[in-house]
């Protein structure tokens, strides 16, 4: 415990860094995942193919490989910008997580009664209008539990980002404290585990509250 207490400032900074990374990645994953979910049910074949290809590639590819490609493949293509590895880590999480968000959104859209879409078409609404005004609002209420699980998994997956040169992240404190300061590994890992629990447990409770709030009466 002394290792954790004596270095609480470093653990705290890592916790804030992880929260920042996860916040950006969550927003990006939700936006991209919803768009891809719409592609998956679109009447336009090329859009369906794009959505299906995206899910097939990223859902079946390890996150480590995605991060490796972003970290080492993008520089080979001449892509570079300030805070490169930070944004590469966020990009890798967005690309990977959006595939799972897409499937959750698609399942929610398919769970909406077909009569809803038929009624929308009967009153003259286009596909885009019926999707945005009628189907998607109902679908998003049903996908809160799976989306919550995806986002919590993303928080845990963010630990891999620290292995790609992103400083200030919670898992990166392991290298700082063990290699640079020579502290024992086990207490440091315990501190990191507590940090992730501080993020995931309240997030799970909030998602459970949201699930009950938007639950559809059966």
Descriptive overview:
This protein is 79% helix and 0% strand. The protein is mainly α and 218 residues long. It has a single domain, classed as MetI-like (MetI-like fold, Orthogonal Bundle). Helix 4 packs across helix 5 (84-111) and helix 9 runs antiparallel to helix 10 (185-214). The longest helix has 33 residues, at 8-40. The radius of gyration is 20 Å and the shape is elongated. The model has no long low-confidence stretch (mean pLDDT 83).
The biggest beta sheet, please? none
Name of the CATH homologous superfamily = MetI-like
SSE pattern, N- to C-terminal: HHHHHHHHHH
Coarse morphology: elongated
Q: What is the number of helical segments per DSSP (H or I, 4+ residues)?
A: 10
Structurally, how many domains make up the residues? 1
CATH C-level: Mainly Alpha
- The CATH architecture term is Orthogonal Bundle
* N- and C-termini, Cα separation: 49 Å
Number of strands: 0
Uncertain segments of ≥5 residues (pLDDT<50)? none
Average pLDDT works out at 83
- Strand content is under 5%
Helix content: over 70%
Briefly note the CATH topology name.
MetI-like fold
What class, by secondary structure content?
A: mainly alpha
Rg of Cα set = 20 Å
